[in-house]
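Review the following:
>
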Amino acid sequence: MHRPSRRALLATGFAGVAVLGLGGAVSYRALTPGPAEPGSTRPLDAGERAVLAAVAARVLRGEGEGFPDPAAVGAAHRAEDLLSGLETPDLADLRRLLRLVEHVLPRAAGHLRRFTRLSGEEQDAVLSLMETHPLRLLRGAFDALKGLCAVAFFTDPHAFAALGYDGPLVGRPTGGWGAPGGGSP
């Protein structure tokens, strides 16, 4: 049996440390939100917005007839509007969560591509991993994303009919929320 020399063991150890350090740096870079887009008043950058839209599309699929498409309603855009009031540390945490969903959780679910490049079924597997994970913090993060998407979707007048709800009385257009020209609450 061949025993490696001390020099070979040290070289292997240093190479391993270098690989781990590089992996940690790449992960840190992927999970660290950069500044918002220059000149934009939107709280998320384009990549984070795409992740939010993909999550919304998966968690808001209607079970029955009459549910509008989350993308057609603009659920992700509406959710981002709701985020505008978040304090900076909370917004930074949400942006990190969206990056975690995009870059890290697909690998934990056995996929090599980013969340936004996965098929619908693969995205469902990633979200299911999040929803049922033993770590309570990750389950809570899933609930927060799902809740944000649901609030954004179900406060849109286009979703009212699918719920059998005729909308709020305050600010109701003359013809009702479903009438042409009926705006958002």
Residues 42-157 form one domain. The mean pLDDT is 80.
